């Protein structure tokens, strides 16, 4: 997900207007004794995950130069210091898996993150080969979460993954997609209890998942990862030049990113949301959405009504 430029525009616009409500989260989040990020249980095991993770599409598809990798290394270091854990990747994301593997080993934090990647091909052996390649690139002997990307040949790959889970090669298995049109199929699979995780698109202005998919995941004990939380930057463009509503502080919201993310996290069916970034300030701003007060249903309704006036 590519939203950095549009967010930067918003930040600059708010700064020109005074920007009193956009606070830099760096000083508090980096402190070891700072507030703890909210965590939610994976229903299949009871293991807890921080509610804000990190996506890697585009941002981690870089070369080997220091200029390209040093900023990403800093993102990973600060993420771990701030209590973040989930890193989501895919073979579809170019060199992202390799870059994540290289950098986490280099900073000696390879065992401190929750690694989630995907299989994105057709055919049993092709899937096995691709997943083994992901293990190699990410430096893993066991993958925390392996997902079938965009439901591609999902029945074939889930059979392999169920075997691998029994063997202890993967801890959890899941399915993913990024479009509303796939939600009904995702829901059918969720209801069959064939997976531990489901990943899909959801945002304050793209709420198709609220119709039944989120409820189905919660009712059937399936953890939820949310992608596209900023609508590829469209949400930041929608609020460009606008200040946060005065009641945002009631939910410890300090930026537009936190406004959008806290709406998502406020739905208790959501286990983790994975905004992508290669910028430390944006990363810590995002993680700040998991701190402090989280809006209840009344608060989320208020946020939605406000956004619908933009």
UniProtKB/TrEMBL annotation:
CDD domains according to UniProt: AKR_PA4992-like
Pfam families: Aldo_ket_red (PF00248)
InterPro entries: AKR2_Oxidoreductase, NAD(P)_OxRdtase_dom_sf, NADP_OxRdtase_dom, TAT_signal
Domain of life: Bacteria
Ranges of residues in domain NADP-dependent oxidoreductase: 52-298
Protein name as annotated: Aldo/keto reductase
Source organism: Dyadobacter pollutisoli
